[in-house]
Amino acid sequence: MTKIFSKKYLEPLFMLIIGLGLFFLCQPFSITLYSYGFVVLLAGTLGFIIVSHLRDS
């Protein structure tokens, strides 16, 4: 269970979430995606900051 919560797996996941948030903010198709874009970007950024402070296993 602790291997799932390691830096090795969580950092790329949160980078993907940050990229998804940027995509949501820049896409011209849906106002709903745009409205959730900042929240997704913020969640990815905060998650990445927290995970970057974890110890390497």
Short summary of the structure?
By secondary structure, the chain is mostly helical. It is built from two helices and no strands.
Give your account of this protein's structure:
The protein is mainly α and 57 residues long. It has one domain. The protein is built from 2 helices and no strands. The protein has helices spanning 7-26, 31-52. It is elongated and about 40 Å long. 4% of the residues are buried.
Structure keywords:
57 residues; mainly alpha; 2 helices; 0% strand
Count of DSSP H/I helices? 2
Distance between the termini: 13 Å
Mean pLDDT: 90
Low-confidence stretches: none
Order of helices and strands: HH
- Integer-rounded radius of gyration: 13 Å
Domain module count: 1
Instruction: Please summarize the sheet with the most strands.
Output: none
